[in-house]
Amino acid sequence: MFHCFTNRKSEVLRDFLGKKYNESSLDHFLMETLIKSFRSKNGHLDLFVRFLHGLCLESNQRLLGGLLGQTENSPETIQRVINNLKNKKKFKISPDRSINIFHCLMEINDLSVHQEIQEFLKSENRSKKQLTMIQCSALAFMLQMSEEVLDELDLEKYNTTDQGRQRLIPAVRNCRKARLGRRGLSDTGLDYLAAALKSNPSYPTEVDLSGTYSNLKGSGVKQLFDFLENPRCKLETLRLERCDLSEISCDYLEAVLKLNPSYPREVDLSNHKLQDSGVKQLCLLLENPQHQIETLRLKRCDLSEISCDYLAAALKSNPSHLRELDLSSDSGYSTNNNKLKDSGVKHLCGFLESPGCKLETLRLRSCGLSKISCDYLAAALKSNPSHLRELILWGNKLKDPDVKQLSDLQQSPDYRLETLVWR
After folding, report:
1. Which CATH homologous superfamily contains domain 285-423?
2. What does the pLDDT look like over 37-62, one tens digit per residue?
């Protein structure tokens, strides 16, 4: 390993070899070298610091013969080094770099954290076990190095601190579904997630950052989802519900998705103040024949009938991919509700009547609709009866006569409408 030492590394090694450290200074020296390695931006000292920790072992000292001179490292000294590694919680480093602390423990031949995580992975009651930060680093390393791909990484399921959850982010590289947003990610957490996703764009196939506390402002979206530009990206599902997005976020998202139009297939942008201008940007994606979005959820995005006009025009030009469209509101909330009204549904029906339309599910809950909307929908289904299977109109204060035409279509074998919910 000596051939790879830089001048700086050699200086530190000479300090180590040229002095007989007493028991009070060796652990201090190793901690100082660890801190210096964390201050380097590219991690070029990480492997070297592991090597220095390995020199504490008598077996390694014997291998180096007389190079080290006289070294008398008592068990108490080694234990202080171990305690320093396990108890340091204030390192401002990335989750990837924090894994180096775990490696240093392994170099000293302390296998306790490794064994604890192995027992944790075998446990049936994982939620009861509270993980320390070093245990989270070890778990992240073991998960991402596993030959078996993790089906789901849900940070909410781990009993640890917010900082501990942040240290689990590297495991995103080896999971199919990543659910990360319910407790929120800090700005630095988003940086770490973006780095993990870029390093292995083939995984995960589903990213869920939904949650009231996820702080994905416009620049955060751009940084986080730059990985979508990678041709190797195979992200099927992107969920960003309640992430404080704005219409600017739609600009960023539309820009990066242009470069890899085949993915994602499912996009959930519900519960944001996107407004009509934000939907207009998304429609630039939908009208592109190369894009293959099959599910689009825009619940409670402060939309009006103008958004329906944009959507209908875009989908008419590229009608064959979309299978599910959700434009619902919630009667229990007064903010961000979609006020589509009957005029908005009339625009959407222009798309439903299109011969190329393959839409199977349409959700229009609590959108301020009346009998006229039901008539528009019934007429559209009569002209194109072969696709729509599920129609949700609950929350629009409709009565039996208002939905009679739709109810008749549901009963007719000539139509595929299997589910009609209006009360």
Report:
1. Ribonuclease Inhibitor (3.80.10.10)
2. 888 877 888 898 998 888 887 777 67
